[in-house]
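Protocol step 4 of 6: structure prediction from sequence.
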Amino acid sequence: MSTNDTTTEALAVAAATGTATILWGPPGAGKTSAIRALAEHWNLALEVVVASIHDPTDFSGLPVVTSGQVSLAPPAWARRLTDHGTGLLFLDELTTAPPAVQAALLRVVLERTVGDLTLPDSVRIVAAANPPDQAADGWDLAAPLANRFCHLNWTADAGDFSRGLVGGWPAPKVPTLPPGWESGLPAARGLLAAFISARPNLLLQVPDASAAGLAWPSPRSWDQAGRLWAAAGAAGASNEARTALVVGSVGEGAAIEFLTWVAESDLPDPEVVLADPSAFDLPPRGDRAFAVLAGVAAAVAANPTTERWQAGWEVVGRAADTHADVAATAARVLIGCQPAGASPPEAARALAPVLRTAGLIKKGA
């Protein structure tokens, strides 16, 4: 698999989840062709917007006065995407857009809002950019805008080019995101919660000017990394694509630490633990125990049936003696999602002293 095959795979997963994605690469490397091919594969209407030839009002909306009321009129491309109900918005040559235009794009990328019009959730947003030193009148991306994208790299691959010239350009190999992929989110969020608890300094690292336009870790980008981690797993994406998605969300340094920590932890699937709590042994190391309990609690909260809720308490109860603080954190989630009519199991009552100390239940309860 070539580097660009991995990038296409990662791009498809990110776009399918609604994550705004940006392809970085030199001019003429085929970024635009790849995005057009992806739109054709999905049979999506493609709207190409070259940011540098637009004014800020083209994204924030042109003020129009009607009957004494001011409205912000959206451009034609936004109306067409809304009329289609879906589509792919391609923001090309993003690093040639001046800072004022980039600021106007923030709301488009984050909130999908153009003037007074909100784009449908099914509209996918993909951008392409040359490094500023290779772009005509290039600008670095502003840090707030950069933090809203998953950043992927596109290269000029000689092998791909040669094969395409001789045998024609093949359709991209695109993984399919299955329905219900969100069921993997609790496990991903448990991993992230445990990792950030162990490495709190990596939660937020605002970059200096030299790296402001690339991926960097923030609560927003970590949440994005978790969604993409779960989606890539559900789609059966390669490890290389999954790695690219995490690196593209939080930056290489933070991503390497996270991926190394995950590889060393060897944690179970929360659904497997809930299916048979009595067969589960809690890891002795604190950060791993946190990851398991956080994942189990999040999984129960996502589908809080009485059976799952009681199984969650059995898992959490077993941590009371060795990891009381971790157990209290997970118990807070379980308390908040108690199903109607469900009675606390024995494990919950055994945790009562810990819960009182944490202030989660009143004294005497």
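Step 5 (inspection) to follow. The longest strand covers residues 123-129.
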